[in-house]
Every structure is written in C-alpha cells, then in structure tokens.
Amino acid sequence: MAFKIFGLSDPLVKGILATGYTAPTEIQSQAIPIAIEGHDIIGCAQTGTGKTAAFVLPILNRLSHETSKNKLTKALIVTPTRELAVQIEKSILRYGRFLHLHTLAIYGGVNINSQLGKLRRGVDIVVATPGRLMDHIQRGTINLKHIEVLVLDEADRMFDMGFINDVQKIISFLPKGRQTMLFSATMSPQVKALTEGVLKSPKMIQVGPQSKPIDTITQRIYPVHKELKTDLLLYMLKNNHMYSVLVFSRTKHGADKINRRLSKADIVSTAIHSNKTQSQRQRALDGFKAGKYQVLVATDIAARGIDVTGITHVINYDVPCFAEDYVHRIGRTGRAEAIGEAITFVSPDEAKYLRGIEKFIERKLSPEKCEGFSYARSEPINPQQHQKQPHSGNKEHRPARQQQRANQSASARAGHNDSTPEQKQHFSGGRNRKNRSRKNFSRRR
Ligand code: AMP
Predict the structure, then answer these.
(1) What is the pLDDT of residues 272-302, one digit of tens each?
(2) Is the shortest distance between the CB of 52 and ligand 1 below 6 Å?
(3) What is the whole-number distance in angstroms between the Cα of residue 49 and the centre of ligand 1?
(4) Quick one: 203 and 224 in the same domain?
(5) Cα(24)–Cα(205) distance, integer angstroms
(6) Ligand 1 centroid vs 336 CA: distance in angstroms?
C-alpha cells in the first residue's frame, strides 16, 4: 500500500518518498486515516514502529491545506525528552520539506532567546518538552489559543518523569475543540485516567501485542557477578561483531564509570545522561549516529529519544528495575523491522528484576554463557586458546547474521531494490560503521 492512498497532499507525499518511505508501517496504516478524519486517538504502540509519522503526517496534511498567511501555532506536540523533541522536529522537516511550514522544538537546557525570537516571528508547529513549554506559557511568550491538534507523545514516560502536572496545566491553556492524539508504549492505569479527562470519544489503536518487544530483536541473558560485568562487556566488545552498541546504566555515575573503563581499554565510546549539557548530549548522539563511537553509554532518561538506525546491540549493563524500561531500552535496536540484539547482564541480586521483566513480556528468557570468557576471576587465561577460538557468546546466531549481511551486500551489488533508501542506509550502515569505527580505532592506537 502506498502513502497516496490516504489522500495526503501531493507535496507531502513527495516529502515522504524523498525520506525513503515507500509503504506505511502498521501503526501508520491504522492511525493516518482516522487522524485525517479528525478523530481523537489513543495509540498504543511499541517503540520503533513508526509512530512519529503516524501523528506527524496528518498534522502536516491538515496544515498544508491552510491558506492563511498568519503564522499562528496550530499544532502542539508534547514529548518527555529534549532528544525526542529534536528528533520529532527533524522528522517534520524531512516529511514536510516541500511544504512552507515553520516548526520549532522548544526544550530546556539551552538559551531561551533564540526560541523567543522564532516564536515572535511565528511558527505553525511547536514540539515541546513540558518544563520549557510551561516556562514560555508563564512568560506569555507562546500563544496556544489557536491550537487545532495536540499530540501527547510517550505519555507513560511523562508520568514516570513526573511531568504529568505540567502536562495537565498545559492542556488547560488549549482550546476545547481541538483534536487530541495520545501515544504510549504501555497503558498504565494512570495513562488511562489521563485519557478519560483529555480525549473525546477516542479511537483506540494498538499495534502488536501490548508491551512485547518487537520480534526482530534477539534477547539474550548473561548471568554474571557484578564485579565481572565490566570485564564481560569489554570481552564482548572486543571479540564479537559489535559495531554500534548502546550500553545502558541505571545511574549517571555508573554511565560515566563504564565510559571511562571502555576508553581506558581503547574502545571508542561516549556517554550521555542528564548531568551533561544539551550540547554535550547532542554532540555525543551525533557522533554515535555518524559512526564516530562504537559505544554510547546512556541512562534510561537520556536514551529515551534515541533513534539511531543501525544500532546492532543494546547491552543492559544493569537490569532495569522497571520492566517497562527494559522494553524501551531494547526497542532502541531492531527499529523499523531491522534486526537487532539485546543483551542483559544479570547479577544474582538482580534476578528479581529479571523475573518482573519476564512476567511483563510474557516470555521466559534462557540464561546463556559467553563462550571463551573467564568467569572465575582467579582462573588463569590461556592466551593460545583465546587466539585459536574466535569466541562468541552467540555462536549459533553469528553465521546467520553474517549470512544475512552477505546476502544484503550481494543484493545491493546486484541493484535489488526491495528496500527503501533508509533501509539500504541501515544495512550498509553496519558496514560503514565498521569501516569508520576501524578507522577511528586505529587512529587511537
Ligand atoms: P519511530 O517509531 O517513529 O521512532 O520510527 C522508528 C524508525 O522507523 C525511524 O527511523 C523512522 O525513520 C523509521 N520509519 C518510520 N516510518 C517508516 C516507513 N513507513 N518506512 C520505513 N521506515 C520508517
């Protein structure tokens, strides 16, 4: 099915095709027609399903038909993190490249002045984090009286991050006759309660079984003592084919510590967490996207908005205490139906969190051992044995992945055109990353 079938405006369809999307994802197929009709929507979708375009395209379509020359803000998208706000703004700019609309992401951690200037000149679409948006409302520097569409993105996370009071205040400044779309990866009782007060006769959309990680992600569990986790991480990074790895740490301090240990071991890595400035976070993220770093170490909150095509592995250095976080973390790989691998290190005191995750995803995860890694600290390592065996914690899996890569390369060489430009970039991303990473690594050596 092509995007044209939705009756989207021609310049918008052109923008979607130029982005490299040829067919809508499931959530897009479900949500776009309903949203175009003006209905309120509750979208319950796993991460990486293409939900941004599901709410952005109907907004762009609506605004592309407007002829008014006044730059009034007609659409507001509220999202929990700065990274998500930047990412949604970028998506709007990509899909709407042939439309003459102005979009602005407003978020904290950066100087407010440039946002003030742009708001004064007029913007059609605002993408905002709750705190900075409240700041603008209190200063009287944003006019929300003409909002026609409100999107609440990642509603569950807004609760987790304590933004819900701000969100409710923001909603009280909006016109009652607006269209509202709420998206959430999980439907907690709190999110349900919010939807009751804020949406009018919403249509419910659920893509895939609720809260189950997407099928393209291989999940692996490695039981290991706490004090061996860094060694195991280093071992895997050096011995397995891991080109673009997102490592999760529960704490900011932990993220910095892991990053330092990796750098000491000549692994090119960087870290993001909420103690870093916005420009440091953006630099780290851009560098990771460009393949400059093999590893990005992140905390849950900082990683929330990460959408990097080509993340080959997510490693949970700590088991997340909340099962929802596990789903969000591993959803950073295997995006838009690409393959990905999620590895979780579980120390004995974390077994209880793992049980919670298994219950949540309704699946038992079998423990595995990383072949070739010395679990006993005192055990002498036989270097010859290490050289002979190109060790892998995923021996069965690797040939399949290598075969898949080989097939993809062969297909690309033969000019097969099944995949979208973005998918192609994704597939070649692994190789490019590998080459770029190698180049960078050798520079360090
Ligand atoms: P999202 O869930 O919106 O964060 O999207 C996840 C990833 O899927 C992003 O990298 C999007 O660019 C990509 N994506 C979204 N829609 C499509 C589509 N129709 N075809 C191909 N890729 C898509």
Answers:
(1) 888 888 788 888 888 988 889 999 999 887 6
(2) yes
(3) 6
(4) no
(5) 15
(6) 5
pLDDT score for 334: 65
Q: How many Å apart are CA 115 and CA 323, to the nearest integer?
A: 36
In a domain, 414, yes or no: no
Mark whether 187 and 224 lie in a shared domain: no
Whether ligand 1 lies within 6 angstroms of the CB of 36 is answered as: no
User: Does residue 222 sit in the same domain as residue 78?
Assistant: no
Q: Which domain holds residue 236?
A: 217-361
- Which residue has 């205040």 as its token pair? 169
Q: Could you tell me the pLDDT band of residue 213, with boundaries at 50, 70 and 90?
A: low
For residue 48 and ligand 1, the question of a CB distance below 6 A is answered with yes
Residues 336 and 317 in one domain: yes
**pLDDT classification of 304: cutoffs 50, 70, 90:** low
24 ligand 1 Cβ < 6 A: yes
In total, how many domains does the chain have?
2
Cβ atoms 290, 282 nearer than 8 A: no
Identify whether the C-beta of residue 202 lies closer than 8 Å to the C-beta of residue 39: yes
Is residue 299 within 6 Å of ligand 1 at its C-beta?
no
Task: Give the Å distance between the CA of 48 and the centre of ligand 1.
Answer: 7
Mutate to test the pocket of ligand 1, among 12, 49, 89, 308 (most ligand atoms within 8 A of CB): 49
Q: Are 304 and 80 in contact (CB under 8 A)?
A: yes
Residue 227: Cβ within 10 Å count: 9
Domain boundary among 337, 361, 385: 361
Q: Whose C-alpha lies nearest to ligand 1, atom 16?
A: 50
pLDDT attached to residue 339: 65
Backbone angles phi, psi at 50, to 5 degrees: 95, 30
Q: How far is the CA of 281 from the centre of ligand 1 (A)?
A: 22
Per-residue model confidence as pLDDT tens digits over 98-111: 999 999 999 998 88
Phi-psi label, residue 140: left if phi above 0, alpha if psi -120 to 50, beta otherwise: left
- The rounded mean pLDDT for the chain is 81
Final residue before a domain boundary, out of 361, 381, 396: 361
Task: Specify whether 182 is located in the same domain as 163.
Answer: yes
Q: In what order do the strands lie in the sheet with 340-346?
A: 217-223, 340-346, 313-316, 245-248, 295-298, 269-272
Question: Is 197 a member of any domain?
Answer: yes
Per the CB < 8 A criterion, the answer to whether 330 and 339 are in contact is: no
DSSP character at residue 367: B
194: domain CATH number is 3.40.50.300
Is the pLDDT confidence value at 400 over 90? no
**426: phi then psi, degrees, rounded to nearest 5:** -60, -50
One domain, residues 120 and 240: no
